[in-house]
Amino acid sequence: MHTSPPNSAPPAKASSARPPSIRYLGFECTSEGRRYRLSVDGPGEPRVFTVMIANTAFQARQARFQDAPELCVAHIQRELDSNAELQGGGSFVITPAELDQYRDAQLKKSPDRKTRTQRSWP
Question: Higher-confidence residue: 112 or 5?
Answer without folding.
Answer: 112
